[in-house]
């Protein structure tokens, strides 16, 4: 793994990552991580990235604003993981993907967005006309579950955010809802202790999160998703963090979208029980091979 630092056009620095295959590169995979995560988290480096390297992928990622090893805050700061602007973070993603394309202009480019990272990937396409060959979304944050953000909290949050925007919500992230695999759940919690959010969502972040989702859904419903980008969506049927309704919505309104569902699975498919992850990786690798073969 190669680490680097990238100066965002908005003034802060982002931690960047690159993994190279042993042989000739056949495709570029850019990973856009989820809320509270990072580009080089164990969820990716344990299995997903090694599998992509075996296929001939050159893999890139970065830590979003205030996540992982990126600036501008220390890891103990209360504003860790609270995106300042969804549009700015999507612009950062756009810039980093463009840089990877410049390094490998002849290779197909696949973007994998997980949860919040999926929403940012869609915003980058919407705002900046990001041109890629394939978009792969894992539990995309197109609609938040009412378990995570119940109706009463949404109403109270909007009102309270006007006067106390930095106040944290009473419902912090519950890792019991992330995976049914208790062994891997423990590993997630250990990484959270170092890189995760300090106290959960702020009211301001939560309101802007909901607004960004609504804006993307309007764009999708208007039929504006580019027809030349192939789309594959993966979701667990029992995801209580990001409801699978968002994935069903994308399949309904985007022509040619392929939806893969996993019965009983929770939010993080790469951290699920072995029978689920085995099926997921089989489907995921098939999607990657299809994207490569199209070129």
UniProtKB/TrEMBL annotation:
Residues in Serine aminopeptidase S33 domain copies: 24-273
Transmembrane regions: none
Gene3D superfamilies: alpha/beta hydrolase
Coiled coil: none
SUPFAM superfamilies found in the cross-reference section: alpha/beta-Hydrolases (SSF53474)
Name of the protein in question: Oidioi.mRNA.OKI2018_I69.chr1.g2908.t1.cds
């Amino acid at each position: 793994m190669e680490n680097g630092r990238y100066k965002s056009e908005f003034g802060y620095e982002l931690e960047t990552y690159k993994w190279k295959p042993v042989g000739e590169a056949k495709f570029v995979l850019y990973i856009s991580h989820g809320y509270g995560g990072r580009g080089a988290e164990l969820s990716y480096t344990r299995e997903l990235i090694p599998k992509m390297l075996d296929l001939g992928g050159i893999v890139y990622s970065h830590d979003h604003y205030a996540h992982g090893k990126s600036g501008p805050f220390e890891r103990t700061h209360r504003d860790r993981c609270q995106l300042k602007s969804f549009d700015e973070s999507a612009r950062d993603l756009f810039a980093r993907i463009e840089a990877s394309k410049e390094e490998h202009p002849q290779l197909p480019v696949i973007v994998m967005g997980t949860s919040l990272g999926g929403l940012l990937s869609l915003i980058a396409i919407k705002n900046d006309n990001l041109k890629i060959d394939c978009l792969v979304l894992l539990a995309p944050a197109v609609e938040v579950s009412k378990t995570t953000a119940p109706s009463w909290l949404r109403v109270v949050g909007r009102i309270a955010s006007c006067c106390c925007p930095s106040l944290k919500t009473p419902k912090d992230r519950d890792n019991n809802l992330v995976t049914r695999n208790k062994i891997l759940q423990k590993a997630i919690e250990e990484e959270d202790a170092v890189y995760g959010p300090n106290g959960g969502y702020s009211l301001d972040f939560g309101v802007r999160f909901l607004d960004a989702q609504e804006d993307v859904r309007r764009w999708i419903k208007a039929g504006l998703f580019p027809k030349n980008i192939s789309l594959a969506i993966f979701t667990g049927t029992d995801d209580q963090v990001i409801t699978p309704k968002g994935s069903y919505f994308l399949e309904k309104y985007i022509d040619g979208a392929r939806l893969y569902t996993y019965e009983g699975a929770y939010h993080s498919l790469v951290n699920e029980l072995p029978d689920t992850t085995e099926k997921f990786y089989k489907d995921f690798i098939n999607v990657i091979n299809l994207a490569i073969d199209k070129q």
